[in-house]
Write a structure and sequence with these properties.
The complex is a heterotetramer.
Chain A: H1 16-51, H2 53-62, H3 65-90, H4 94-124, H5 135-138, H6 144-177, H7 186-212
Helix pairs in contact in A: 1-2, 1-6, 1-7, 3-4, 3-7, 4-6, 6-7
Chain B: H1 13-17, H2 22-50, H3 61-80, H4 83-96, H5 105-127, H6 141-144, H7 149-176, H8 189-221, H9 234-268, H10 275-288, H11 304-331, H12 341-364, H13 366-372, H14 376-406, H15 412-439, H16 453-483, H17 534-540
Helix pairs in contact in B: 2-3, 2-4, 2-5, 2-16, 3-5, 4-7, 4-8, 4-14, 5-7, 7-8, 8-9, 8-10, 9-10, 9-12, 9-14, 10-11, 11-12, 12-14, 12-15, 14-15, 15-16
Chain D: H1 9-28, H2 37-56, H3 64-90
Helix pairs in contact in D: 1-2
Classes of the chains: A mainly alpha, B mainly alpha, C alpha+beta, D mainly alpha.
């Protein structure tokens, strides 16, 4: 394999290590920013939850618990797969790394399909954001529209991040297959993987908030 | 023979608009910012003229409401927030840490074009209905007004994205691109200030982005995140908004404080009274500044417990500013002080910022805030911080680094004159507004009872003096840009790192590897190889 | 002394019980601000003159802060700031806690007017008439966007929110007319949303009460605004209770039904389903109408719908007054028969007595 | 700088642990824990997130600057949530 290619750093960096360090720190700072982005809407959710405990319990109880839980397992598995792929690429096993990234992408796609199935189910029941739909003519609990609006807001934003993550992983996969990424440039895959893990971590918190309790 | 500088390396338009050179991007920002300042200033002047008489003077109520909103939005997000970090931070930070560029030059350029995109969106909103909510966009008014809320708010959202990317770039640059041997405790204080600012930008701005998106959804799709009819709570919007917008005050003022530290040391030719205190207090402001947002909401219907907590936390944050002011003032003691234009602006900063800061503490004294909240007192207070602080520091920075950026020098006499005019004009404009606030005049009032007219006339007159001062500045700086005499590499005799290369600097910032092993504020001995060097002096003689 | 200070910095008269304290703190804070600004600028100016530069190559001695110097400054400044907070917070708590015996006036804000509903059932627009020397509590809500009730002469201000009741109180110390301004931007005519508080002497106020000035409350009894006719707020409350079918679940005679009885409810201590104990005061009662799920009394199911947006401030006020009138147990129905348990009667009670 | 873990075992072990926690969280949601249901579920979520961050995202081997970045973000997020929720929770009094 051609993994022994020595990469030259960009001209404003002294070494490739410095460049990789900068890229890694940059990604972490970006993730910190993402945490606060999701944090804002989660803080709003929590505040409404404290305000309307009963309505939010009703909302959680009505949610598609099984589908949401399966999705959690899907994302956890995908995270494990992409972590293994980084490990494989570092060890020079490019083919294995490629397969594992492909598996991650497949699992991510499954996640989105299940998510859309859930949305379809909600729409069928007459649950739309903003308290619109026939569901809310039967269920009046004050605060219930806020639960579902926030549900759509939070999962929608998360699904958007999943889509972005899938795009990034897709680009990385094609570069692995074209042998443009190897052991020496494994940090590029690592950055994509870190982003994917963040998407996973956010879902780890959305799951109990929206589906469990 | 002219030296190769970043200015004459390549001169095509393409080489400017697609540049990844941090210095050129800094210049692009500077030009855009000055455009924004002029536009925001135009609205300010229009508002002041409208207030010459009660009721209708030159515009209708709707025009007035849109004008003060645009004045706020332009000044806050298109001028103040990016002002010093995006222009001078971009230009100087890599040089000050001894790097060839920022860590992610292409991201830097992207960030500029995001800024332009957002700015255009905000300006477009002017023509497709305007916005009349004030720069705070409080729902449910903002989610029900039929004006161009989505365009304007998405514009601010995009500008926020640009802010995050700029901050990210600076954080990573400061961490990973420092020259060998350049430890944290040897960094110029401007770097500390920009670094602390960047942390706030990265961590606070996403919250603003999120909450603006929610308001856009409320306004255009009626999702009702903050709509009381659907169980929403508008006070929660205010929490999220101020969680960003209070730290944003430090995004605006911290870089100005960095400028002050540099200017004071250079023109006093003396080490700072306490480097550590000034450096650490920047971090203090950055972090404790996040804990005080609720003091904007004492009468908003927040719980008494929360109000009390925010009140006491607000008192803690003020101490960091006090530390800085104290240390700057005492830096002058035992120095060799030359009252040049940048230092005169810094003196204006000191006085106005102390006054603005102390009145800020005053409004955090909770019972007083009940009377002052949403009156002209608050307007005067934050203009003392933002104009008296940030704009004054911005002007100090322009004058201090003008020879660095252009290689030319402006007229010192006109500089001192316009600085005096700006200070006087500012004071006459905004001091009466404290009194208006005491008298109870609420802000965002198109019409007002006649007893307030005398103070409004004084304020409007002051705004003309201020504008005159700024106009003179623009004229002589414009003249100096093309006709000013050559300034030399280090006209102020500063020890700081950015003056250790040629003025203007070459494309990659340094011709030879400069020594980064000295203290940038050490004036106890001559600097070898410069005009300061006794050997050079002898040679010249 | 305080009058001179007020005139010096353009403060309006201090016409409420809290004004003098607030203005004294104001004087303290502003004097300190002036002194510190002068001190900083004076020091900077003095150093600039004393240590002016003599040569462009002049060197200076290293002069650094001692820890003691920095610490003493920090202690002094922080001490002052915290003292301000303590004083300010104590006054703030006083300002947000109405005395128990205050009279209530209901306030409804809308673009761009203030509407006041008095306990005797009258409505006035933009003019609030109160007696001097009596604590007045305003229970305020908005019909559209956020407004803010601001009386500079009383040094009080409180945002008025849609979907919620906020309270503010004052006790006027002198008679006269004092302006009310809306302090939260609320749309194109924000600056014209003005009203006034007319403070009358106790004797004049009694006269005003008897004069019946103002309109009768514009409460809709099914035939358009004002169709409930005259009468005090308690009587109106009975009609509202009928028309809104409150009496389908709440009795007025002490019997337990779907919901708790209103008899003897006011001022009593309630144990909630989650174990908290609350006193059934005006705030609790209005909250229970708007957010029934917020404080569910132990032993009752949460089945009540919200009346958010369907009850006006005046109607809410009328209901609270009715419940308050029942604080010592049921009273004989006056004028209106109250079929406490018959839902059908309650439903067509809307057609009036 | 990141010292890459030598063996793939920690990754697989972590993956296993995550799935075990996932199952236990799901199972616990059927035990009637009352008011404790959400805190317990969130506590498990925190453990999972910490595992992902330390092992998968290699935060355990990251530089101090990266760890501080994460800590700063979390500290501010908790501050935001605490003071916002405190307002809603203490408003009635």
């Amino acid at each position: 394999m051609s993994d022994t290619t020595v990469l030259a750093p960009q001209e404003h960096f002294a070494t490739i290590e410095q460049q990789a360090h900068a890229a890694r720190l940059g990604m972490w700072v970006f993730l910190a920013s993402e945490v606060l982005l999701f944090g804002a809407i989660i803080a709003l959710f929590t505040s409404y939850q404290v305000h309307y405990p009963d309505a939010f319990r009703q909302g959680v109880d009505h949610n598609t618990k099984l589908l949401g839980s399966i999705n959690t397992g899907v994302l956890l598995t995908s995270s494990t797969a992409v972590a293994c792929s980084v490990h494989a690429l570092r060890a020079g096993k490019r083919r294995l790394a490629g397969l594992l990234v492909a598996a991650t992408i497949a699992l991510g796609a499954v996640f989105l399909v299940i998510k859309l199935t859930e949305y379809a189910k909600h729409f069928h029941e007459g649950i739309y954001p903003g308290g619109a739909g026939s569901f809310f003519q039967v269920h009046h609990a004050r605060g219930l529209p806020e639960f579902w609006t926030l549900y759509f807001g939070m999962t929608g934003l998360h699904a958007l991040h999943v889509t972005i993550g899938l795009t990034v992983l897709g680009v990385l996969l094609s570069r692995i297959m074209r042998a443009e990424l190897g052991a020496a440039s494994a940090h590029r895959l690592e950055l994509g993987a870190i982003y994917w893990h963040l998407v996973d971590v956010i879902w780890i918190f959305l799951w109990p908030l929206l589906y469990l309790a | 023979m002219t030296e190769a500088t970043y200015l004459n390396a390549r001169t095509t338009i393409r080489s400017w608009v697609l540049t990844t050179d941090h210095k050129r991007i800094g210049i692009l920002y500077l030009v855009t910012l000055i455009f924004a300042l002029v536009l925001g200033g135009f609205f300010a002047m229009a508002l002041r003229i409208e207030h010459l008489t009660p009721g209708h003077t030159v515009m209708t109520a709707m025009t007035y409401n849109r004008s003060f909103t645009l004045h706020g939005v332009i000044m806050v997000w298109i001028f103040m927030i990016p002002s010093i970090p995006a222009s001078f931070g971009n230009f100087l930070l890599p040089i000050m840490v001894g790097a060839k560029d920022v860590a992610f030059p292409r991201l830097n350029l992207l960030s500029y074009y995001l800024f332009i995109t957002g700015t255009v969106m905000v300006l477009v909103s002017m023509f497709v209905g305007g916005i009349d909510t004030g720069w705070t966009f409080y729902p449910p008014y903002s989610s029900s007004t039929p004006t161009a809320i989505p365009t304007a708010l998405l514009g601010v959202f995009v500008i926020g994205f640009s802010t995050i990317l700029t901050g990210l770039n600076f954080v990573v640059t400061t961490h990973t691109m420092r020259h060998e041997g350049l430890g944290w405790m040897k960094l110029p204080l401007f770097v500390w200030a920009i670094y602390a600012t960047s942390i706030i930008q990265v961590l606070a701005t996403p919250v603003l982005g999120m909450v603006l998106l929610l308001v856009v959804l409320d306004n255009s799709l009626h999702w009702g995140f903050f709509d009381p009819a659907r169980g929403g709570d508008p006070v929660l919007y205010q929490h999220l908004f101020w969680f960003y917008s209070h730290p944003a005050v430090y995004i605006m003022i911290l870089p100005g404080m960095g400028v002050v530290s540099e200017v004071v040391a250079t023109f006093a030719r003396k080490n700072l009274y306490s480097y550590r205190a000034i450096a650490y207090s920047s971090f203090g402001l950055a972090f404790v500044g996040f804990l005080t947002w609720g003091h904007h909401m004492f009468v908003a219907g927040m719980s008494t417990f929360d109000a009390g907590a925010f009140g006491v936390l607000s008192m803690l944050v003020a101490i960091f500013s006090a530390i800085k002011v104290f240390n700057w003032t005492w830096t002058l003691k035992g120095g060799a002080v030359a009252l040049k234009t940048p230092l005169l602006y810094v003196f204006a900063f000191l006085f106005l910022f102390v006054f603005g800061g102390m009145t800020g503490v005053a409004v955090a004294a909770m019972s007083l805030d009940v009377h002052w909240h949403d009156t002209y007192f608050v307007v005067a207070h934050f203009h003392f911080i933002m104009v008296g602080g940030t704009l004054t520091a911005f002007l100090a920075a322009i004058h201090y680094w003008f020879p660095k950026i252009t290689g030319r020098m402006y007229s010192e006499r006109l500089g001192l004159l316009s600085a005096a005019l700006v200070f006087a004009g500012f004071f006459v404009t905004f001091f009466p507004q404290f009194l208006l606030g005491n008298a109870g005049m609420p802000r965002r009032y198109y019409d007002y009872p006649p007893q307030f007219q005398p103070l409004h006339i004084v304020s409007t007159a002051g705004s003309w003096v201020l504008a005159t001062g700024l106009l003179i500045t623009a004229i002589y700086l414009g003249h100096a840009l093309f006709r000013g005499h050559r300034a030399g590499d280090n006209p102020w005799g500063s020890r700081s790192f950015e003056w250790r290369t040629t003025s203007p600097p070459p494309t990659h910032n340094f011709h030879a590897t400069p020594p980064f092993d000295i203290d940038p504020y050490d004036y106890t001995q001559p600097l070898p190889g410069t005009d300061d060097d006794p050997a050079a002096e002898k040679e010249a003689a | 002394m305080i009058e001179l200070f007020r005139r010096l910095i353009f403060l309006p008269v201090g016409a409420s019980t809290v004004a003098d304290g607030v203005d004294a703190l104001h004087a303290f804070v502003i004097t300190a601000t002036m002194l510190v600004s002068t001190y900083v600028f004076g020091a900077a100016a003095w150093f600039t003159v004393r240590y002016r530069r003599k040569s462009d190559r002049q060197l200076t001695r290293r002069l650094s802060a001692t820890v003691r110097h920095e610490a003493s400054i920090i202690t002094l400044v922080l001490g002052t700031f915290l003292l301000w907070w303590v004083l300010g917070f104590r006054q703030y708590v006083e300002m947000v806690q109405p005395p128990r015996d205050s009279d209530v006036v209901y306030v409804e804000a809308k673009q761009w007017m203030w509407k006041f509903t008095y306990p005797d059932g009258r409505d006035t627009n933009d003019v609030l008439t109160v007696p001097v020397g009596r604590p007045i509590r305003l229970a305020m809500t908005s019909r559209d966007v956020i407004h803010s009730f601001y009386v500079p002469s009383f040094r009080i201000k409180q945002d008025v929110l849609p979907g919620r009741y906020t309270a503010v109180w004052f006790e006027a110390t002198q008679t006269g007319t004092f302006p009310i301004w809306c302090a939260e931007y609320c749309g194109v005519s924000h600056s014209r949303m003005r009203g006034e508080v007319v403070v009358l002497s106790q004797a004049d106020y009694a006269l005003w009460l008897r004069s019946g000035k103002g309109q009768t409350a514009e409460i809709d009894c099914g035939r358009g605004p004002g169709s409930c006719g005259g009468g005090d707020l308690v009587a109106i409350g009975r009609q509202v209770a009928l028309r809104r079918a409150c009496v389908a679940c709440h009795t007025l005679d002490g019997q337990r039904h779907v919901g708790p009885t209103w008899s003897g409810l006011y001022g009593s201590q309630r144990t909630l389903a989650d174990g908290r104990k609350v006193v059934a005061d005006d705030a609790y009662l209005t909250r229970s109408m708007m957010e029934p799920a917020a404080d569910v009394v132990a032993g009752y199911a949460q089945v009540m719908p919200t009346y958010q947006g369907s009850l006006t401030a005046a109607e809410t006020g009328a209901l609270v007054e009715l419940i308050r009138s029942l604080r010592d147990g049921p009273v004989a129905p006056a004028g209106v028969a109250l079929p406490a348990l018959e839902i059908t009667t309650a439903a067509d009670g809307g057609r009036g007595p | 700088m990141n010292a890459a873990p030598i063996s793939v075992k920690p990754i697989l072990a972590t993956g296993g642990a995550l799935l075990a926690l996932w199952v236990s969280s799901f199972a616990l949601s059927y035990a009637s824990l009352g008011t404790w249901a959400l805190p317990v579920a969130l506590a498990i979520a925190v453990v999972k997130a910490v595992l992902v961050a330390l092992v998968f995202m290699e935060l355990a081997h990251a530089t101090l600057s990266m760890k501080l970045t994460v800590l700063a973000a979390l500290a501010l997020l908790l501050t935001l949530m605490a003071l916002m929720v405190a307002d809603v929770a203490t408003r009635g009094t």
